[in-house]
């Protein structure tokens, strides 16, 4: 069966097949079921796949396959596909019998069976054309076909006479099949956020990631209360509903063929509500989005050269620096293009130590023994070890890694068996007057005293 609405289809088929088996003297030993799967393609039909695997692999403990009719074997648009699967079974000595349709073994029976397959495929084509026409008519009338509402909008049900019924909460459906569902603005607060996003993106030239951070700091969150992200801001900027129009015909997916996406200029639109902002502002946002999307026309060499440019200017390369670099892809684009950011670094001739400290050239982490050897090497070079010297050596891993492996840096120094100056003080005061208690302090260059915290290393007067 192809949909959950045909919930009794499987039971009816099983009952008809059982009656046929009893009348013809068959014993049913196993059943293969594809519930909620379309017969247009073999893709996703796990029951059919298991059946063919058992037959071809010689594991079938039966001699005959009983199918209700040709359409249940499949409504393949290429009728040769249905014949191919049936031939695979016959070639292994397993016959395929259609319970509701009597086909002879001769030439005439083959012709009738082929005609039945053509009719099954034609039924799907006709039904698909009717469904497409109905969906397009609903879209032209401003109805929505389903799915959650975009940010700033809600779903409302309307009666056949056009009167408004009620507001639908997330996950709710209309109560009667004769009703229709349309989008409407969710409220002034969400509308203000949408206008802020467009103003910051177009007038202020803010990046989508920066806009998300600004909204999160202000306490304006997504519909479900989760933080804004770059992708969510992009969805708002591309939403046609903000102009009061509803777009449809964005893609086509006919008869199990691959989805074909159409350019924005080929979309159809219909007016469904009053606009939340001007068409001019929306068009300006789409123009800037196209400019940003144009970055993806950069070649791999241009992307690699961008990494070298960051390294020359900053002395290092990080994902945050890549994302902040104007005119350059984001770090995610490097992952999708090169497979990993580390591979892009190697192509740029940059050691991974320039990006993430305490790593091998292949990006793997240092072992505990390698970390302890690095601390001993640091002591042999400088005659002492402390936090400042440790942090200055980028061949050693981060403090977060040290905390995870050793507990803290002092424990790592002790396990490396190197002398270090690391004391405890009940009170000390930093240069700005902030007081701290019960923390580790240590001697540093030029007799200074340093405090190690999660925010880094700070110098303190004790």
Automatic annotation (TrEMBL):
InterPro entries: DNA_bind_recomb_sf, DNA_bind_recombinase_dom, Resolv_N, Resolvase-like_N_sf, SSR_resolvase. It holds the Pfam family Resolvase. SMART domains: Resolvase (SM00857). GO terms for molecular function: DNA binding; DNA strand exchange activity. Residues 1-144 form the Resolvase/invertase-type recombinase catalytic domain. PANTHER family: DNA RECOMBINASE-RELATED, DNA-INVERTASE FROM LAMBDOID PROPHAGE. This is Recombinase family protein.
């Amino acid at each position: 069966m192809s949909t959950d609405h045909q919930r009794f289809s499987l039971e009816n088929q099983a009952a008809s097949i059982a009656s046929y088996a009893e009348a013809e003297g068959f014993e049913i030993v196993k059943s293969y079921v594809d519930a909620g799967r379309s017969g247009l393609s073999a893709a996703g039909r796990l029951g059919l796949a298991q059946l063919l695997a058992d037959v071809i692999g010689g594991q079938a403990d039966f001699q005959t396959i009983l199918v209700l009719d040709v359409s249940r074997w499949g409504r393949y648009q290429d009728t040769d596909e249905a014949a191919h699967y049936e031939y695979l079974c016959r070639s292994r000595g397993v016959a395929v019998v259609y319970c509701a349709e009597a086909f002879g073994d001769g030439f005439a029976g083959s012709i009738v069976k082929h005609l039945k397959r053509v009719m099954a495929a034609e039924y799907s084509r006709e039904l698909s054309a009717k469904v497409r026409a109905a969906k397009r008519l609903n879209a032209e009338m401003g109805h929505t076909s389903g799915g959650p509402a975009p940010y700033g909008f809600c779903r409302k049900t309307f009666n056949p006479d056009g009167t408004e019924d009620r507001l639908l909460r997330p996950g709710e459906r209309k109560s009667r099949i004769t009703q229709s569902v349309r989008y409407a603005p969710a409220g002034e607060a969400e509308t203000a956020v949408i206008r802020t996003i467009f103003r910051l993106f177009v007038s202020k030239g803010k990046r989508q990631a920066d806009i998300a951070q600004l909204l999160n700091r202000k306490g304006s969150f997504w519909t479900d209360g989760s933080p804004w992200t770059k992708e969510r801001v992009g969805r708002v900027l591309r939403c046609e509903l903000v102009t009061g129009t509803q777009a449809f015909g964005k893609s086509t997916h006919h008869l199990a063929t691959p989805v074909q996406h159409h350019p924005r200029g080929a979309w159809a639109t219909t007016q469904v509500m009053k606009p939340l902002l001007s068409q001019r502002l929306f068009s300006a946002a789409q123009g800037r989005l196209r400019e940003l999307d144009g970055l993806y026309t950069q070649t791999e060499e241009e992307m690699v050269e961008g990494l070298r440019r960051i390294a020359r200017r900053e002395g290092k390369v990080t994902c945050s620096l890549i994302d902040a670099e104007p005119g350059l892809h984001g770090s995610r684009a490097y992952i999708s293009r090169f497979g990993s950011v580390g591979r892009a670094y190697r192509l740029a001739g940059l050691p991974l130590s320039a990006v993430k400290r305490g790593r091998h050239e292949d990006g793997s982490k240092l072992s505990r023994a390698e970390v302890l050897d690095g601390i001993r090497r640091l002591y042999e070079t400088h005659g002492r070890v402390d936090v400042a010297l440790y942090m200055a050596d980028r061949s050693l891993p981060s403090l977060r890694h040290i905390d995870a492996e050793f507990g803290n840096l002092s424990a790592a120094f002790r396990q490396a068996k190197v002398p270090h100056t690391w004391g405890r003080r009940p009170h000390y005061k930093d240069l700005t007057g902030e007081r701290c208690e019960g923390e580790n302090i240590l001697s540093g260059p030029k007799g200074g005293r340093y405090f190690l915290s999660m925010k880094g290393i700070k110098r303190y007067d004790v």
